[in-house]
Amino acid sequence: MTDAADTGKVAETLPEGLAEKRSLFGRIGNFLKSTPEGELMALPPKPAKLGSAVRIAWDGQPFQLTLGNVTLEIHPDLAVTGNENDGNREWIIHSGRDFYKGVPSFLRIAPGETVVVGRSDDLQKRLFGLNKSVAGRHARIDNRKGELTVQPLDLDRQTEISAITSSSSVWKARRKNLKRLPDVLGRPLTQFDDKDALKVIRDVNAVIAAEVYREPDDEGAPGGVIRFPDDMTVVIMGDIHTRVDNLLRVITEGGLLAALERGDACLVLLGDLVHSQEDGELEDMESSIFILDIFCMLKRRFPENVFYIRGNHESFSPDVGKGGVPQGVLFRKLLKERRGKAYVSEIETLFNSLAFVIHGNDFAGCHGAPVRSRVDRNTLVNIQRYPGIQNELVWNRLRQGNRPAGYGKGSVRRFRQTLNLSRHAPVIVGHTPLSSEGTVWLDIGGIVGHHLVYSAHTHRLAAMIMSDGRVMPLEFVPEPALAFLNDGLGA
After folding, report:
1. Is the pLDDT of residue 3 over 60?
2. Ordered strands of the 440-441 beta sheet
3. Of 320, 242, 223, 341, nearest to 286 (Cα)?
4. Which of 276, 297, 426, 474 ranks highest by number of CB atoms within 10 Å?
5. In the predicted model, is pLDDT for residue 124 greater than 50?
6. What tens digit of pLDDT does each residue of 132-152 get?
7. Residue at 4 is within a domain
């Protein structure tokens, strides 16, 4: 499903050619040896020791798994309606109450997948804070059509299981966040009236003209680089391409919305917010209007915590499109018809004012590609003088046999040096999904720390969390959030 770097001992056994079936965090497909059956277990109210494999029914009930002295929560990932039949019978593992208070960290297990939980998996250590009481390979969890099999792997270490008796759950928290989102934003999640849209975009452009964390260029205009404070947790979404439900899924998961309200986290939309890439939707520009309206709602409410980066689709150029459809031209035409010339001008101002590069003390990102040549940071700040560099950052792709002008390992190394980052500091890009199924690819091109995130698929999406020098990729399943809010499903 997702290509990634090796993240667990199990992943090393994958045969060549099965990379697309491999997921994040040591998950593997069911093409390996058959899983143990185990006895169907009624979850006990108090922790009970596991000495052999047990089966957990798909009945909507979460449970706790204690490994050593670390307790994890495992929840069915129900749709916001609470109807288990609306979902894909996936489960989410997280580390407890912090999931609901701040930026969430978790892993998911889809039907047919396995995860081996243990300290030998570096990503799991970061996600769950696994300590030395947890074995390298502590427990195996298999998802068979929603029913889980949990098997202890190290019988010398404590493994206990119990029901979660509190009312907290992943889907209830997301449902609550969705219901309160209109109040947080101060309006329903519907398109602006055309007569109000001009004032809104002018307000947003005024915010971006003096955007926090952006060094001005030599002309006093907002520069091309956003530099986040060292203590800021940054959540990065790749190309969204009008998928409003995908954006809402990330914002309302766990405690991210609360973290944005407190100012503890920032959300970065890494370009290509507009223009659907789905067959049958390429000429639908209404969705592009709507996603920009949603961005404006977020930027007005969180001016210092929501950021939008320039991608190649942030343009009215005839060169912007897909499958022969000139999406940039069609978008401009509809905007002019619907909201008038002045509004078109303000959207152009928005696109031209967006930063091209983000970075912190220990990571960096851009939409398409690091610059191939050696440039200094001042050049990136004054990027409006350098259209060629702008073009590289949003249009170029990784060098391959059919793309000799693409960027490579040297470009990533120089990009890190320009931003004064460490040798293997994460560099995040979007723009070029490596398959129609995947969402996150780690160490792409064989370049350590060079990752790609994509958030526009209709079946799955991803986001990257950057915190304290750590990169944590998360996968989500889209759900009809707008229908839940606007069509009475959340009543």
Report:
1. no
2. 214-216, 222-227, 357-359, 364-366, 427-429, 450-453, 440-441
3. 242
4. 474
5. yes
6. 999 999 999 999 999 999 999
7. no
Cα–Cα–Cα angle for 440, 442, 446, rounded to 5 degrees:
140
Structural domains counted in the chain: 2
Angstrom distance (rounded) from CA 7 to CA 406: 28
The yes-or-no verdict on residue 5 having pLDDT over 90 is: no
Can you tell me the distance from the alpha carbon of 53 to that of 158, in angstroms, rounded to the nearest whole number?
14
Same-domain pairing of 108 and 130: yes
Task: Select the highest-mean-pLDDT range: 53-62, 201-210, 404-413.
Answer: 201-210
What share of the chain in percent tops pLDDT 90? Answer: 80
Average confidence (pLDDT) over 424-442? 94
Task: Label residue 15 exposed, middle or buried (CB < 10 Å: 0-12, 13-18, 19+).
Answer: exposed
3-state secondary structure of 403: strand
Question: Following CA atoms 331, 335, 341, 344 in sequence, which dihedral angle do they give, to the nearest 10 degrees?
Answer: -60
pLDDT reading at 102 higher than 80: yes
39: number of Cβ within 10 Å: 8
Helices 194-209 and 327-339, axial angle in degrees (round to 10)? 120
- 384 falls within a domain: yes
DSSP 198-267: HHHHHHHHHHHHT-TTEEE-TTSSEEEEEE--TT-EEEEE-B-TT-HHHHHHHHHSTTHHHHHHHTSEEE
Assess whether 240 and 119 both reside in one domain.
Answer: no
Give 56's contacts (C-beta < 8 A, 6+ positions apart): 41, 43, 63, 147, 148, 149, 150
**Sign of the Cα pseudo-torsion (289, 293, 299, 305, in order):** negative
DSSP β-bridge partners for residue 364: 359, 427
Same domain, 309 and 365: yes
Q: What type of residue sits at position 35? A: T
Q: 406 CB contacts (<8 Å, ≥6 apart)?
A: 369, 396, 397, 398, 399, 400
Q: Are 233 and 260 in contact (CB under 8 A)?
A: no
User: What is the number of residues in the chain?
Assistant: 491
Nearest to 222 by CA among 230, 234, 231, 210: 210
Computed over its alpha carbons, how large is the radius of gyration of the chain? 23
Instruction: Tell me the C-alpha distance between 255 and 268, whole Å.
Output: 16
User: Which pLDDT does position 87 carry in this prediction?
Assistant: 61
C-alpha 325/C-alpha 439 separation (Å) is: 25
Task: Quote the domain boundaries for residue 32.
Answer: 10-168
Model pLDDT for residues 321-380, shown as the tens digit of each residue: 999 999 999 999 999 999 999 999 999 999 999 999 999 999 999 999 999 999 999 999
Residue 66 contacts by C-beta under 8 Å, 6 or more apart in sequence? Answer: 47, 72, 158, 159, 160, 161, 162
